[in-house]
């Protein structure tokens, strides 16, 4: 009951946060010196066409009136029409979201699988060569820009070793030899459902380099965060008591200590995941990945304000929901965390 009250309270406050974000984004998008009607029609727009599209898009109304109309349509599931693609913004987001999520889930899974064990090993062998190696690798992962790491991986694994593909979600020849019928638009899942193993292998190969690039920063961050909290937890009295009772070191480290040290790492993982939902544009550009990041860049370059509004609200909503999920997960793992 207490948890339900907490969720309801957080959701209500989140509504006010989203309204504030929408007002700020809407105002900023409108003060940019550009004419959306001209952008919508094209460079050879005539005056009468500009006037017609201006009225059609509601740009001849006052700013508060335009905001009211936008929010009214938004409540009915209409996020407007993209100026650059001429398609509904909601359609653009939903068709590109699976590609981004597939990349994100894989990247974050790699980050957790690499970062948490690295942090634990570093804390357990503090001051030893293992600790120095882990700290060096994690600092490189955090410091290396994603676009530079992506280019290095492409040069090494595509150009030098010829082991992995350069870019894209799958090979073009698959469209004719082993096509994937879209069911969920998650190509890994769709290939599995069809038992199309050739396509599945091809998709996995295309996913490795962008996922590794995306995982480098959060893996380094998680490793450093896990190390810091593990060092603090390993000095606690209950850990010394467990050692005095002769409990195996692996049980003490991975069961007792890690459980109480993982909360800060969960926060980092959640925030990184939320940011990456719309912030993966470097990775998506380098690997020509048709996701939300690439769409975000194109929208910003074309001053596509309906798309910018849609992407911003979507990103803010995901931030709110992921933070709520992380808080609930922390309270479930660590009873010392209270939901107030």
The count of β-strands is 0
Structural class: mainly alpha
What percent strand?
Answer: under 5%
Uncertain segments:
none
Q: How would you explain this protein's 3D organization?
A:
- The structure is a single chain.
- With 340 residues, the chain is mainly α.
- The mean pLDDT is 83.
- The longest helix has 37 residues, at 197-233.
- It has 16 helices and no strands.
- Helices cover 75% and strands 0% of the residues.
- It is globular, with a radius of gyration of 24 Å.
In a few lines, what is going on in this structure?
The chain is 75% helix and 0% strand. It has helices spanning 2-31, 36-41, 47-56, 63-75, 89-124, 129-143, 146-160, 174-177, 187-193, 197-233, 237-244, 249-261, 263-279, 281-286, 292-301, 305-333. The longest helix is centred in the middle third of the chain and has 37 residues, at 197-233.
């Amino acid at each position: 009951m207490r948890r339900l009250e907490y969720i309801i309270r957080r959701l209500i406050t989140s509504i006010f946060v989203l309204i504030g974000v929408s007002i700020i984004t809407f105002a900023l998008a409108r003060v940019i010196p550009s004419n959306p009607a001209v952008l919508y029609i094209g460079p050879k727009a005539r005056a009468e066409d500009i006037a017609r599209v201006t009225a059609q898009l509601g740009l001849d109304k006052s700013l508060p009136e335009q905001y009211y109309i936008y929010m009214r349509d938004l409540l009915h599931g209409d996020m407007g029409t993209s100026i650059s693609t001429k398609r509904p913004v909601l359609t653009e987001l939903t068709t590109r979201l699976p590609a981004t999520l597939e990349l994100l889930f894989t990247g974050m899974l790699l980050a957790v699988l690499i970062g948490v064990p690295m942090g634990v090993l570093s804390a357990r062998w503090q001051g030893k060569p293992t600790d120095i190696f882990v700290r060096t690798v994690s600092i490189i992962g955090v410091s290396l820009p994603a676009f530079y790491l992506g280019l290095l991986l492409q040069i090494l694994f595509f150009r030098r070793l010829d082991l992995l593909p350069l870019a894209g979600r799958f090979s073009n020849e698959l469209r004719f030899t082993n096509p994937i019928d879209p069911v969920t638009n998650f190509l890994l899942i769709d290939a599995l459902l069809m038992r199309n193993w050739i396509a599945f292998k091809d998709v996995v190969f295309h996913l490795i380099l962008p996922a590794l690039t995306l995982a480098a920063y959060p893996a380094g961050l998680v490793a450093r965060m896990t190390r810091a909290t593990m060092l603090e937890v390993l000095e606690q009295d209950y850990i010394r008591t467990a050692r005095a009772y002769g409990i195996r070191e692996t049980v003490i480290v991975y069961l007792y200590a890690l459980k109480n040290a993982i909360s800060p790492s969960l926060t980092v993982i959640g925030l990184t995941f939320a940011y990456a939902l719309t912030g993966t544009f470097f990775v998506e550009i380098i690997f020509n990945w048709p996701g939300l990041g690439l769409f975000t860049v194109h929208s910003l370059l074309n001053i596509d304000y309906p798309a910018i509004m849609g992407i911003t609200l979507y990103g803010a909503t995901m931030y709110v929901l992921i933070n709520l999920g992380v808080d609930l997960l922390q309270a479930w793992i660590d009873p010392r965390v209270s939901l107030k």
